[in-house]
Write a structure and sequence with these properties.
Elements lengths: L9 E6 L25 H10 L1 H4 L4 E6 L6 H14 L2 E6 L7 H6 L3 E5 L5 H8 L4 H13 L3 E7 L7 H11 L5 E8 L5 H7 L13 H12 L6 E2 L2 E2 L7
Parallel strand pairs: 1-2, 2-3, 3-4, 4-5, 5-6
Antiparallel strand pairs: 7-8
């Protein structure tokens, strides 16, 4: 059950596999595409249908990971089943999948897009990868008109500071369909997983970000924007959560 991964009460499905190696990742156990457990779309949907009474008018299912777009065939099958069952489907993603985005977005009600960084150099510093694939997915979202929530992790010395967040704000103003922007304070809850897996933790000496500091930058993100929808076009809304 999730209360923060999309609107309302939601079931959150974590799919295995991720090509990114974000320096602050707290789920290294999801990197391996051969990890986790096997399941068919039909069996999983039978479980989800049992929770429909909890979803109400706002809740539903959120597909997360790892990177759910790497299992595009399985994901598409599940999205279609959600649509046929009248279950709202949200995609929590960094946009680094295996294509077929246009078809996937036809059955996606909301995209929670994880912006790693707004420059190519910064993106590579955070993830170890090129931002090209994420840009392809983001372009597909823009063309589809699917609503978006934006998330960005504030890490001391890596993705923080007034100039950084002003640059992020300017980048987000170029996007359509953004309903909410959430700044997430960096935490160290995933460090024990690295030790258990025998993986060196990249940010060993970086302290957690204080939530009250992140809240101050959240106010910066709110400046100059207001929520409105006119003629099926969304104005950008930065919601302080």
């Amino acid at each position: 059950m999730g209360l923060v991964d999309g609107p309302g009460i939601r079931s959150v499905i974590f799919l295995q596999g991720c090509r990114l190696r974000c320096r602050y990742c707290h789920n290294p156990d999801t990197w391996d595409p051969n990890g986790g457990s096997l399941c068919t779309a039909e069996v999983l949907m039978q479980k989800l249908k049992r929770f429909k009474p909890y979803y109400g008018s706002k809740g539903g299912v959120t597909f997360s990971g790892g990177e759910p777009l790497l299992q595009s065939g399985f994901l598409l099958e599940l999205l279609k089943l959600c649509r046929s069952e009248g279950i709202s489907a949200c995609l929590d993603t960094a946009g680094c999948g295996a294509g077929n985005y246009e078809e996937i977005l036809k059955y996606t009600d909301l995209v929670i897009f994880d912006v790693k960084h707004f420059t190519a150099k910064g993106y590579e510093r955070v993830t170890g990868q090129s931002p090209d694939e994420a840009a392809v997915f983001l372009d597909a979202v823009q063309k589809s008109g699917t609503p978006m929530w934006i998330r960005h992790v504030a890490v001391p010395g890596l993705t923080d500071g007034d100039s950084h967040f002003e640059g992020l704000r300017q980048f987000l103003k170029t996007l359509r369909g953004v309903e909410r922007v959430e700044l997430l304070p960096y935490h160290v809850l995933g460090v024990p997983k690295y030790r258990e897996l025998g993986i060196p933790y990249p940010l060993e000496d970086v302290p957690p970000m204080k939530p009250e500091i992140t809240a101050q930058w959240q106010q910066l993100m709110n400046r100059g924007c207001c929520p409105a929808r006119q003629n099926n076009k969304w104005r950008i809304h930065y919601a302080c959560q």
